[in-house]
Amino acid sequence: MAHGDITHIDIPVSDLGRAAGFYSDLFGWDIAEIPGFEGYPMWQAPNGISGGGLAPRDDRFTQPRSYVEVDSIDDAIEKATRAGGSVAAEKQNITDSSWWAVIVDPDGNYIGLFEGVVNPS
């Protein structure tokens, strides 16, 4: 994927098993826990490209969140804050070669940022 591509969509759920059954039956999504990401079942759409995760719902995570791939999370956060945005979740590791963060745009929309490679080849 390239800078600016939507790479992942998290859906907040209160019951991971119930949600996995619902989305799998409704959309034909392949949903499974991947080693190293237990408790965070990931979904893959039939097109083999679209995907995301089912994440525990909490007071700060109540709506689906898209993650946009960026060349540099640090640069994207700096640019977003200069343009009137803010940071909801600082840059955090996913793997040794990938990171995520969440910004808030001036209208209050939460947008996830993704940088790196999850499965380097």
Q: What does this protein structure show overall?
A:
The protein is α+β, with helices and mostly antiparallel strands and 121 residues long. The protein folds into two domains: 10-59, 2,3-Dihydroxybiphenyl 1,2-Dioxygenase, domain 1, CATH 3.10.180.10; 70-121, 2,3-Dihydroxybiphenyl 1,2-Dioxygenase, domain 1 (Roll), CATH 3.10.180. The protein contains two helices and eight strands. An eight-stranded mixed β-sheet has the order 2-3-4-1-5-8-7-6, covered by helices on one side.
Overview features:
121 residues, alpha+beta, 2,3-Dihydroxybiphenyl 1,2-Dioxygenase, domain 1, 8 strands, 18% helix, globular, VOC domain-containing protein, Glyas_Bleomycin-R_OHBP_Dase, Anthracycline_SecMetBiosynth
- The CATH topology of the largest domain comes to 2,3-Dihydroxybiphenyl 1,2-Dioxygenase, domain 1
Strand order of the largest sheet: 2-3-4-1-5-8-7-6
- State the name of the first-level CATH class of the largest domain: Alpha Beta
H and E string: EHEEEEHEEE
What shape does the CA trace take? globular
Structural class: alpha+beta
- How much strand? 35-45%
Biggest sheet architecture: 8 strands, mixed
Q: Which ranges are low-confidence, i.e. pLDDT below 50, for 5 or more consecutive residues?
A: none
Radius of gyration: 15 Å
Quote the average pLDDT: 92
Q: Could you tell me how far the N terminus lies from the C terminus, measured between alpha carbons in angstroms?
A: 15 Å
Helical region count? Answer: 2
CATH homology superfamily name of the largest domain: 2,3-Dihydroxybiphenyl 1,2-Dioxygenase, domain 1
Named at the architecture level, the CATH assignment of the largest domain is Roll
Number of domains: 2
| Strands, count | 8
Helical coverage, percent range: 10-25%
